[in-house]
Amino acid sequence: DDASFGGLDDEKWSFSTATEAGFSYCRGKGGTYTQGGFVVDFPRQPDEGLRMLHELRACGFLDGGARAVAINIPLYNVDQDIFGIYRFLVEFMETGYVWKFENYYFIDAKEYLANGNYVPIFLQAFMLMFITFYVGDMCYQLHSSVTHGLTWKYMRDMWNWVEIMNNSVFVAVIYFRLKFYSSEVLNDASGDYLIEEEYINIELCGYQYDMELGLVAFNILVSFLKVFKYLKPFPRFYMPWATVGRAFPDLLCFLFLFLGCMTSFIIVGNLTFGKQMRAFRTFNSGIKTMILFLLGDFSYDEMPHINKVIAPIFFYGYIILMVLIMFNMATAILLDAYSAEKEDMLVVPPSTLFSNLRDYWHQNVLWLSRGSSKSAAKSGKKVGFAGEAEKMRRHHSNSENFTAVINRNISKAASKTSKNSEFAHPMVRHNQSLIPPKPSGRSRDGSQHCRVIFNVRFKVYTGAGFYCRRWHMDTLGQHDGGAVVELPYGCILLKSWLSVAEQKQLVDCSFRLAAEANKEWLKSATSQEHPYIVCSYDKNPPPRAKDCVRACGLRACTGACGRPSCKQEPTLLYSLADDAIARARKVADCGGVQLPEAFCPDTVWGLVYKEQDCMPSHLDRAEGWVLSISVGATVKFVVGRKPEKGSMYGEYAPHKPVPEQVEQTVLVESGDMLLFRGDTVFHAVDGICPDTAPEFWTDERHDTGGLARIGLLFRDGH
């Protein structure tokens, strides 16, 4: 009712609109009231204010039609330079009951009225520029999506909604801040204005200030969630969101059942206990009470006094169904999704924050210090371009698009650095693949050409930003043919130890044993995304659980490592290993290299690799020495790198590893053998050097189905 009353011409008897009153909404317990109303300004003198109050009472200012009275008292703290607004709201209900409600607003005047405080102004200007850039970028992406008909794809991404929400709140905060700076009340609320008799209405400013603080607080939470968007390239940081995404279908079905059961309990509680318990008086209060029940905060003592029959059924039924069953079911869904996500992540060990910072240092600082490729081309030096395509393919499933992008970037870089094909890398000239051409022959110092250190730098857009990296490939020890080289931590490298005939014999025997154990072994090996055990034998097989962590990485055990897959003992393989160790012992004794006193292998594994396969760093469960014979493409073998905690091989074997191990990489070529303690030395396979297989392996590649290497592992003891 906005009609005038009282029969007087005074303003206090006439209805004031929201613009004239200048107040905010009044929200009480009985409802929310508009910004307009009948307004009375009381003077500052107590006697004059008391006289006006008696006059309003005598004239019937508050009658039976009054629903609420709001008293606003502006305050100013001189010591703290803070404005305050105290609001006391009284509501008159139809039944005669009176509700009382009070609220406070505070405004820090120093933030707006201080002169010469340029630091906050500069920071706010910088923030405004930053927000303008991000809002413009968001609008451009949205416009591009609409133009190309990809609106649904853009809106389907949860992080785009977070981006829109974050930028929208930023714009709202900027709007409120500009209104504060342009507020006449705050700009004039100084000096003589504070001692004038007129009422200073800063209640609306206080309401807007409170709204701004609420938006800022909400945006802090949204901005924190936005951090996970930029941590998406790091799987360990993104693991919580990946887990929820994998479990989302199951969680959605579970949530439907959970809400249905909880709603039924809320209705029962409201009908049974609502008239006598405040906790179940309304549906909203019942929701809060049921959630507190899940967390163990409940008051059961009052329930039996209301209804002795339904109270225990209601309470214990809720505890059993919702807490013991539903709550633990949700936990099981998340744990199962986390385990599956962890297994997928461990197929390829993720990069760490330290490794990315190290790569950034190498690619930006060290690269610039060595000079640009243009200066090298002008001086007549050859500039080599190669890619770590195999390592990057392990991080990207869509290898065709990824390979095309890298080839395009490398071709552009080569065309800029050299107009003459003499200075271009053969890989770029042929434009066939990212794999460098196969080296032929040996250099003057007897070392293989694949030992050349490739400094690679390319820029590829991966979808999460520009990914720049430089790959460093190096070797340890000497690579003289037929030599015994002593490596760190007691490891021994036997270079070029097997002849071509022995390598062929070993491959034929291994593949024949694999076919006897499984006729479709080649199909099984090439269909996996990890190394695969094709043959195995153990002279003294120990009791071993079937569900174990295996090198093959399979969830369902095929028994290849739990029991011998070979029907008979592969005497040829054992004899090759014994003969190789016997020959190495003679050479080692002459060179002063110490080999194990006795090496009698009990177990043999045949492990095949594809070009993209790798093996995380680990320790062997069995004690004793390990002899690794490599046939096929050159492999990057790493010793001394400690596994990361939480990885598949993060828990070490029950033996103490060699202390203070440092990561070292050695290139193991076809016909080489490695002898090391697998239970004390961390070892890993970081990948295959492309196009480095011997000629006989390449000629018979149609028989291997795309396999790049086979490794025979002989273990002495358990």
From TrEMBL:
Residue ranges of every copy of the Polycystin cation channel PKD1/PKD2 domain listed in the record:
122-339
Keyword field contains ATP-binding: no
Q: Say yes or no: keyword rRNA-binding present.
A: no
Instruction: Tell me a GO cellular component.
Output: membrane
State the source organism's domain of life.
Eukaryota
* Membrane-spanning ranges: 121-140, 161-178, 213-231, 251-273, 313-335
Keyword list (alphabetical) reads: Glycoprotein, Membrane, Transmembrane, Transmembrane helix
Intracellular or extracellular location(s):
Membrane
For this protein, the record's InterPro entries field holds: AlkB-like, AlkB-like_sf, PKD1_2_channel, PKD_2, Polycystin, Polycystin_dom
Task: Write out the GO MF terms.
Answer: calcium ion binding
SUPFAM superfamilies for the chain? Clavaminate synthase-like
What does the record say about its membrane topology? Multi-pass membrane protein
Start and end of every Polycystin domain?
9-99
**Can you give the residue ranges of the Alpha-ketoglutarate-dependent dioxygenase AlkB-like domain?**
490-715
Q: Which family does it belong to?
A: Belongs to the alkB family.
What's the protein here called? Ion transport domain-containing protein
Which taxonomic lineage does the organism of this UniProt entry have? Answer: Eukaryota, Viridiplantae, Chlorophyta, Pyramimonadophyceae, Pyramimonadales
